[in-house]
Write a structure and sequence with these properties.
This protein has three helices and nine strands; from the N terminus they run E-E-E-E-E-H-E-H-E-E-E-H. With about 170 residues, it is mainly β.
């Protein structure tokens, strides 16, 4: 048995000896490869925020900015983005432009599927996760010029939407 692996992929050569029952000295040896892929995992990612003024609740997002966290140290994997969990699981109705996506509602969920393009059957439910697109009205952000004071206030848990700012409704 010889095994080698690169980036979650394992290839093994299996050697087989076949012989006659009546004459064990009459045999043949052959081999075949077994290739094993690691199951892709979609790591949890943070929500994406856009701050705007004037505020209309709609903004353009580059969904692919989550890929570094999403994939972690997994190599050879690809991500696709969807509007529903069902679409992500069934791999249908992919968002066509994931680098220039205009949200359709504020605080919109986006679902993402991670897969291995060389082995499309290598999939499990942990290959799908979600995050939210949130457009924030900058007129409602409380201005705290002292970064240390702001960090201390946020550390108390007041930043309920986890965007790194304090909105008037959180204060």
């Amino acid at each position: 048995l010889i095994a080698s692996g690169i980036g979650g992929f394992l290839s093994q050569i299996i050697y087989v000896r076949v012989h006659e029952n009546a004459n064990v000295n009459n045999y043949s040896i052959t081999s075949f490869n077994i290739n094993l892929d690691s199951m892709p995992v979609a790591n949890a990612v943070s929500n994406l925020f856009v701050y705007e003024s004037p505020f209309d609740g709609f903004a353009t997002f580059n969904l692919t900015t989550v890929n570094t966290t999403l994939l972690g140290n997994q190599t050879g994997l690809v991500s696709k983005f969807y509007l529903t969990q069902s679409d992500a699981i069934n791999d249908v109705n992919q968002i066509s432009d994931s680098t220039n996506f205009l949200n359709t509602i504020n605080e919109q969920y986006i679902w993402v599927r991670v897969f291995n393009p060389s082995n499309l059957t290598c999939y499990q439910t942990t290959s799908v996760t979600s995050f939210k697109l949130i457009v924030v009205d900058t007129n409602n952000v409380v201005n705290i010029p002292d970064a240390n004071f702001k960090a201390a206030i946020i550390a108390t848990g007041i930043d309920t939407n986890n965007d790194g700012n304090i909105q008037q409704i959180e204060a």
